[in-house]
Predict the structure.
Amino acid sequence: MEEKDLTTKNKKIKYGKQTLIVLTIFLGAVLLGLAFSFFLVPKLSLNGEEEIKIGVNSKYVDAGAKAIYQGHKVNQDIKTESNVDTSKVGTYEVIYKIDKGFIEKEVKRTVIVQDIKGPVIELIGDDVVYVCENTEYKELGYKVYDDVDGDLSKNVITHIEDGKITYEVTDRNGNKALAERTIVKKELVKPTITLSGSSSVSMYQGNPYHEIGYKAYDDCGNDLTNKVVVTNKINNKVLGTYEVIYEVEDKEGHKASVKREVKVTEKPTGGVIYLTFDDGPSAKTTATILDILKKEGVKATFFVTNNGPDDLIKREHNEGHTVALHTASHNYAKVYASIDAYFEDLEKVHTRVYKLTGIDARIIRFPGGSSNTVSRNYQKGIMTTLTKEVEARGYHYFDWNIDSNDAGGAKTKEEVYQNVIKSLSRTRPNVVLMHDIKVPTRYALEDIITYGKENGYTFAALTMATKEVHHRVNN
Ligand code: ZN
């Protein structure tokens, strides 16, 4: 029994020993584990949130992570991998790793790049637009830009209501943008009068005042020109400074007025204009020219040929003009074939004029003028001889020093007019070449005469006493 007891006792002792060993091993393992984790496993954690949402194209600044190893900060040992691309919408990861002791640890952060910015609508023109009554607003335009989708101008939906235009656009990611423009009825404030020409002009004493013109509009661009009232108190007989007043009123009674200053100055004197008409008469045009000259009381010179009705030559003479000779045929090949041929041809028209008027016409003009070069084709040097010979035979020949160019480039009344008036001079006789057979000439004639009279020139017909105007002979 005792032995038995002893065995039992021993067993108890045996048990006790085993438990202690197990406990010891266990504790040792725990301590070892603690030591391992404290000394050999680094601690790694994120700074900031585990998931971050940011807008596309915004700047992403990573908050990083922190690591502790053996009680010390070892942030510098963290290795960071990131595929974050803020230029593209998407979900990205930032991975932080530390490899210390026996274990590699890692933590992750999710970065979501989103399109959170709406498009930007930029209106072209003002936000408030004034539109005239009865006028429809015309869209001034807009530009839309989205940081992800780019130009979205074509996606804009506009909507007009109660004087407001709403512009709406949505980007691909559902971000919406709105813009608004207000349309306000434009109120009339004051009409505008614009004067043509200078606001200060001068005119010569005795001349009528010529209105250069004006235009008037209300604030909505409606033409009010024919509502302008012009008040003109110019006394053209008295030298001085006068005003022309232009007044207008829009339909709402707003008034505007402008003034033009007009100086009446002394008319210059001097300068003679000899209007000369070649190549006629013509049944189509010469009578009208004669009518104008008669009406204006102006005398001129006609260098006639054997063409046209006799009556017109008679009329030229009877109305006080000088009937002069331009050769009968005006045919260069014929008249410049020889000296004799020229005089033979000249004699024919001389006879015609003599029969019709009883006048021994002695004033002549060479076809093409004395400076013509066409005669070289028929006889060399003929003009050099002819210009002397005609004078020797008692004729006076006249060229011209102003060419209206009515037989050349001038095709309109205005061109003929300008060609003449731009060359007028007070210091020499003005011999003007025109052709009574040309249509624009008769339309320009009245204006040329008016200009001459208003500028102090006198008009005269050529006579044998008039100082001859000669070109330089070229053949
Ligand atoms: Zn001619």
In short: The pocket of zinc ion is lined by residues 278-279, 326, 330, 367 (CB under 6 Å).
